[in-house]
Specification:
single chain, about 250 residues, mainly alpha, 7 helices, about 75% helix
Length: about 250
């Protein structure tokens, strides 16, 4: 494959990343809108998010997990403290959105209780990957800046090579992490729907449509994040090939 062809592929991927940025904004907006709509609609059970989480935990015989009120927008399950942290608007609300999100986070608690390999693997590498992500974004920006403004023979080629190699390793790590995250998140949502149905907490059309809408919209944010990372990694690969041929 010629360098000219590689450059065309490179810029094609670059355009793809820009498109994915707009898709990401659209998907995130769709999730927030779904969540906003169903936060105003009451579930048929009239149970709060905290009560929903407790009911699911009890059904699965999980007694060592606490349910607490956390910061708004920071709903999550922490395996280190065995705590399901729910936003005030989820913990105290009996809306369809609160039901869906509380059930989803409880799904993660069940995954840990059943020793799911995917969630254990994901959570064990979460902090290192978060640090690597921040470094990777910086390196990507620096590499792109040099690509656009540095000329051949400027003495920066070796530096560009090292940042490209670093970017390759970092985005591989990010990609693996996000790939592992997909079955974890989809699995938690599937478990949430199953538990709500079996407990007869999701019975009306409003319950079913709202729960599926909120959880599916949330899941799509993880999908577009993985696709964006995969495209960025491909961009680094092409850049690496171009630099090795140049040198």
């Amino acid at each position: 494959m010629s360098n000219e062809t590689l450059m065309w592929i490179f810029w094609g991927i670059f355009v793809g990343i820009i498109i994915m940025a707009f898709i990401t904004i659209s998907v995130q907006k769709a999730f927030f809108e779904k969540n906003k709509v169903y936060a105003l609609k009451q579930s048929s059970s009239q149970k709060t998010g905290a009560e929903i989480a407790k009911a699911i935990l009890d059904k699965n015989g999980i007694t060592n997990v606490k349910i607490t009120i956390g910061r708004e927008g920071s709903d999550h399950f922490d395996p280190k403290t065995n705590t399901i942290s729910l936003s005030p608007s989820i913990h105290n609300s009996s809306s369809v959105s609160a039901m869906a999100i509380a059930a989803h986070e409880t799904g993660h608690a069940i995954q840990w209780a059943k020793k799911s390999i995917f969630i254990r693997l994901r959570d064990s590498v979460a902090v290192p990957v978060q640090i690597a992500t921040q470094i990777g974004q910086t390196m990507f920006s620096m590499s792109l800046f040099i690509l656009l403004f540095a000329s051949v023979g400027s003495g920066l080629e070796n530096w560009m090579m090292w940042t490209t190699i670093a970017g390759l390793f970092i985005y591989v790590a990010m990609g693996i992490f996000q790939l592992i995250t997909l079955p974890v998140e989809f699995g938690a949502s599937k478990k949430a729907k199953k538990e709500l149905k079996e407990l007869k907490l999701m019975v009306t059309e409003n319950d079913i449509k709202g729960t599926k809408g909120v959880l599916n919209a949330a899941a799509m944010t993880y999908v577009v994040a993985f696709v964006t990372t995969a495209l960025t990694l491909a961009m680094f690969v092409i850049r690496f090939l171009l630099l090795t041929r140049r040198n």
